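If it is no trouble, might I ask you for a protein's amino acid sequence along with its backbone structure tokens?
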Amino acid sequence: MPLALDALQDVQDAVNHRDPRTTQRYNRHRRRHETHPGHTLAARLVDRLPE
């Protein structure tokens, strides 16, 4: 757990958030984006593109 807290503090400092809850809110939104059906479909389509 201390490593996770250190990472949160690093991000919070980098983006000048005074309150860690602000930084955590962005992290929760990121997770929603990654599991969105449209994002999942796009990732699968990209995987099928020829290299």
DSSP finds three helices and no strands in the chain.
